[in-house]
Amino acid sequence: MLEGSVPYDIPDFRKEEDRVKYENDRLSPFYGSDNSLPTLPVCSHTDYKPTEKQLEKYKEVIGE
């Protein structure tokens, strides 16, 4: 999706060579446990920001 529907091979994480390719992949659509911002957009509206109430609910769900 992020690359315009360009097909790509699915890695086989049972193979060390495939795991090494992705070991530094830190992209995430979620807020970090340290309140860091997502590194991927959560929707097609890239300027979307959750409300304070939504963030509170999210923290409740993840157990903070």
Give a topology summary.
Blueprint: H1 16-22, H2 52-62
Q: Which descriptors apply to this entry?
A:
single chain; 64 residues
Summarize the structure in words.
This protein is mostly helical and 64 residues long. The protein has one domain (16-62). 28% of the residues lie in helices and 0% in strands. The chain contains two helices and no strands. The radius of gyration is 16 Å and the shape is flat.
- Principal-axes geometry comes out as flat
> What is the H/E string?
HH
Poorly predicted parts: none
Compute the number of strand runs: 0
Mean pLDDT: 86
Secondary structure: helix percent: 25-40%
Q: Could you give a quick summary of the protein structure above?
A:
With 64 residues, this protein is an all-alpha fold. The protein is 28% helix and 0% strand.
